[in-house]
Amino acid sequence: MTEGVRVPPIELVVDTGADPDTAWRTLTEPEGVALWLTDASVPRRVGDSYRLDFGEGSIVRGEIVVLEPGHAFAHRWAWDGAEAGEVTLVTWTVSAVAGGSRISLRHDGWDEAGLDATVRDDHAVYWAGYLEDLRDVLEEA
């Protein structure tokens, strides 16, 4: 990484006609997460571990750092087998907007994890696709 150059966070937003409660459940309940992302554990409380299993050994683990039911959920993000310290932060928020809800994703901490813009950009491409899938699932709900 170039000295003094900050790797920006990934910030994506999806607006949907789904009500905020439906959006929240689809972001946090394993049955809902499986429809647009992957197999996920249940986020119960701050400090608990959180796990996403993408199959074929691709597993993300992290600690829940924010859990405000119906509004915000954040967890640390570290791939199994990553170097120590390669931990970023994923934050989801749900808010009511006219006609539905807005879901915001922020994936940050690239510099602190010692990761460069290439890694961040790879994640951004995947997140964009997953958020399209999330929007599609919510529009069908």
Q: Can you walk through the features of this model?
A:
The structure is a single chain. The chain is built from 3 helices and 7 strands. Strand 6 and strand 7 form a beta hairpin. Helix 1 crosses helix 2. The model has no long low-confidence stretch (mean pLDDT 96).
Task: Provide a quick synopsis of the model.
This protein is α+β, with helices and mostly antiparallel strands. The protein has helices at residues 20-28, 30-36, 117-140; strands at 10-16, 39-40, 49-53, 59-68, 72-79, 88-97, 100-108.
Secondary structure layout:
Layout: E1 10-16, H1 20-28, H2 30-36, E2 39-40, E3 49-53, E4 59-68, E5 72-79, E6 88-97, E7 100-108, H3 117-140
Antiparallel strand pairs: 1-7, 2-3, 3-4, 4-5, 5-6, 6-7
Which percent range fits the helix content?
A: 25-40%
The secondary structure category is alpha+beta
What is the approximate shape? Answer: globular
CA-atom Rg in angstroms: 15 Å
Q: Kindly, what is the distance between the CA atoms of the first and last residues, rounded to a whole number of angstroms?
A: 43 Å
Strands of the widest sheet, in order across it, are 1-7-6-5-4-3-2
Query: What percentage of amino acids are in beta strands?
Result: 35-45%
Count of DSSP-assigned helices:
3
Q: Unreliable stretches, pLDDT < 50, 5 or more residues?
A: none
Main sheet makeup: 7 strands, antiparallel
Mean pLDDT across the residues is 96
What is the total tally of β strands?
7
Series of H and E elements? EHHEEEEEEH
